[in-house]
Task: structure prediction
Amino acid sequence: MKPYIFVLILFVVVAVSCERGLQPAPGFQGTITFPSDNSGKVPWPDSLEGAVVAFADVSSIYLPSITFPQVIQNLLGYTDPLDTSRIEQPYFLQAHPGRNYIAGVIATTVPISKILGQPLDSLAIHPEYFQVLGLYGNPDELTPFRFISVDDEEITPGIDIRCDFQYTLDF
Amino acid sequence: MMRLRTIIFGMLLGFASCIMASQTRQPGTITGRVLDETTDQGLEGVNIVVMGTVMGTASGPDGAFRIRGISPGNYTIQFTMIGYKATIDTVPVHAGEITRLAIALEPTVLESPQLVVTGEKRSVRVENSPVSIGTIRDSEIRLRMPTTINEILPYHSGVQMIGGQINIRGSSGYTRGAGSRVLVLVDGFPVLASDNDGIYWNAIPMQNIRRVEILKGAGSALYGSNALGGVVNVITTPISEQPHTTIRGQGGYYSVPSNPSWRWREQPLITGMWSVSHERQLDSLGVRAGLSYRSSPGYSQNGWYRRWNVTGKFHLTPSENTEWNGRLYLVRDIHGVVTQWRNAHRPFNVPLESVGDYLTNHHLQVALSYSDVVSSRMAHTWRTIYYRKAFQNYQHDNNDYSVSHTFSTEWQTDYQATSSHLVTAGIEVTGDRIIADLWGNHTSYDVAGYLQDEWSISALTRLVAGLRADLLQIDARPVLMQVNPKIGLNHNLTDSWTVRASVGRGFRSPSISERFTRTRQYIFQVAPNPDLQPEVSWSGEIGTHYESSALTLDLALFSSRYRNFIDPLQDPATGTISFQNITNANIRGTEIALEWKVPYLPVRQVIGYTYLHPRDLTQDTVLAYRHEHSVVSTTNILVSRKLLCSVEYQYRSKIRRVQVYPTNPATGSDKRVPVHLWSLHGSYQISNHLTLRFSAENLFQYYYVMIERNMGAPRHLQLGLDYLY
Result:
């Protein structure tokens, strides 16, 4: 075999075999914005230990009568703890395509290491551990949240959430 | 405390009386040169053993060797080297005279290793060892152009590297570097840092390595704590008889992912290294000095490092039967800290708050050894090492520091009691002093004695039995005693076929960091547990080794039963993590290694397969961070006399269990995949002094994680030049 043919074959083999294994994951991303005080810092309350972005699959819930406990029971996952010293920060959540999700920022009243690693359904029985700081949606809309959908192998951008330490849930 | 100090004093008195017992002798010397039969070039690293005695040496870079202090008589000398047929010569030695030899070794088709020292603290042919010992030779190391020695270890069957932690036959999982279950030695000196018993791979010299030996199985009967799952012994080259200078330089870059969101930096990821080393003989004193620098931006954010090494070695022969060896190693290392990725969308970025986190490391190792061949039947060796390690964190959430001082001294006597019994006995004293805010200030002692008998039952059968007792104390806590026996048998069924069996006990004393750490890492609060108990194991193995001119086959069945495994455990009530004796475990498995030459082609292949069945008996589940199936393959192709190419492949089955972030099937996050890594290495000899090297690690840019949320390295292409004169 001529050397250049060997090199050509090697090049083709390398080219077609590259970048296997883990692949970019579908999901959604956006920016979290915490409120800031006059000095430009986040006025993080002492009662809260940390916060994560959590999301729930609401595809199977009858939406006109949706309740927050139902959302909690359908939690799928959450991000790593947010940096509580930053006013703005990006986030990403991996999610399967073809479902409807809602996402929000949830703060915890207990050390966040106590929450991480716990089965999600066990968290639903401790609502006192959580305080919602904001949901993805438009405050001017009739519903307090907006659905998020993910296309095949795509990342849905622009799922921005603005937080408020006095946020109140109305569903 | 007083009791231990009394024991230490008694031992030192014993050393002194042994030295005083040395008598004036009129010995002879054997000197000469070992050459390649086909090229007439001097061969470096040939193992030379005076049979039936405790004496031996290795040839220098030009093939020259010298063995002093041999009592007059007729001796059989054995010359062995990887890739060459073992040769035996019988020579007379006369009082006060020098016997000169010129030996030519015949190259063989296969390059299976022949002599190892780690299993019994003296040279033994690998097929005669009752335990599994693997070797990686210097040419293999240079061909792969690694940054640190841990990068080449996974190419060896039975060895896995998980997050920088070595795992021999499944003994270790992943504990963020705390408490290694494998002991690492450099020229027989332990180099584990005493504060966390962790292995700092960047504190192991990469220049002038002759070979790496890997003892698979419990080695505590000779080496004490940490040798629970095995021992890695890095053996450096002897100092050349002729002036010798080596200059090496290499540069490379990491490939960037094609997906833009996976790129963490726009600039190219250029890596580089250079090293200079010079050695020469000044009468009876041989000296070597070296300097090296390595830098890399890393393949992920915060993965950068800058590393300076200074090495020194000396060899002094003040008399015919005594010699001194010394080693100095200085490392200054600054590197970024990668705890985990930012998220699956940005897997090569670190969390925002961690950007800019880094730490500094300083290592100083000073080692000294003295050996005295009292007679052809008795030799003493004294080794001592001082190891200082200091680190300082500069991280967003902590500025922890630790300084550890380890002083260890050991006396070893080899005594050929009869023609069939060779006894090795020794005592070892180790003291540690740790000053740290991370785990507090502590002092610890380990006083140990060991005894081993190699009994040649017949010309075909060898039995090795040994025992080591360790007395350990931390601060003013009660003294703890550990006794670790071992026994092994090796039998030659034919000239080319041997069988072996061994069983031994191992232990590991909890490290200072596992007992006393109080810190915050990422979001986790870590609490101390001063009452941790040592973890212990019983390991057994049966194996067989077959070697012919075209094929070498080694098969081993092994089983280890662990008690009081130390693992980090999270308290569900508080979320706090502490180390606990939580698990009893059983690890069984099989290892097969085959080396063969493809008929009619200049191609040699080594294939290794390891199967592990690692069970956590407490939770009745699989142990975390173990690959159950591993295949490693190396195919060497001698394209021409000057061009050698090597294609390597590693397969690791998907890790079935992790501890922190299991796969979430509802979202697909934290997915794990099997590992398929292909690498291509080569060397082209431009002239007698100049060699060009090239390397492509992870040739196909395969993406994988071994520990959660930490991407493996992408393709790394390197080009290097070696200049030797």
